[in-house]
Sequence to fold (241 residues):
Amino acid sequence: MKERLLLLYELSKIDKELQELNSLRGDVPMLINELTAKKDEQEENLAEVQNELNEITEKEKALLNENETHTQKIDKNDALLRAGAVKTNQEYNALAKEIDDAYEKIGENEKLLEKEIKIKKAGLTEQVNTMRAELDEMLNDLKQNQETLAVLNEQTEEEERELKQKREELVKKINPDDLEYYERINHVKFGDAIAVVRKGSCLGCFNAIPPQRVIEIRMAEKFYHCESCGRILISEEFIKE
Fold:
C-alpha cells in the first residue's frame, strides 16, 4: 500500500509541474478561443450585411439601366416627332404617350433611388466598413495572442514533453483502480489530488486532523482522504522515510 501511495504522490508532483507550465500561458489560450469565436461570428454577420449591400447595389444598377433605356427611347421618339416622320395623329399620339410614360417611369425610379435605395445603400456601406474595421482589429488581436502563445509554447515545449513522458511511464506502474480514484479527485480539485499531512494538519485545506488518524495516515495501510477537502492524504514523515 505504501508503494501505491508513493506512486500516486509522484504522479501528483508531475501533474503539479505540468499545471504550473500551463499556468505560464495565463489566459492566452482562453482569450484566443474567445477571439476566434467572435471573429467567426463577425465574419458571418459581415457576410450577411455584404450580401444585403450587394442586392441593393444590383437593384440600384437595374433602376439606372432602366432609366437609361427610357431616356434613349424618349430621345428616339422625340427625334421622330421633330423630323416629321409621323404621318398620322394616331401615330403622333402613340409616340407622345410613350414619351410621357417614359418620363413618368423615370420619375418613379428616381424617387425610389433618392428616398430608399441610396439611403439604404449608404447605411449598409457604413455598416460594412465599421464591421470590417472591427474584424481587422479582432484579427490583429488574435494574431498577437497566437504569436504570444507560440513563444510560450516554445519556451515550455521541451520541459512539458519530458514531464508527459515521465507521467506515461509512471502511470504504467500504477494500479488502474488507484489511478481512476486519483484522477477522479484530481479533476474535482483542479490538479491537486494529494495533500501532505504536516504537524497534524492537511496542507490542502489547512484543517486539523485527529491525532489517531494522523498515526494511521503515517502507517499508510490504506488510502485516507481529508474529511474537509476530500484530498488523498500522505504523511510528511512517510515521504521523508
About this structure: The first helix runs from residue 2 to 23. Helices lie at 2-23, 28-83, 89-171, 176-188, 211-219, 236-240.
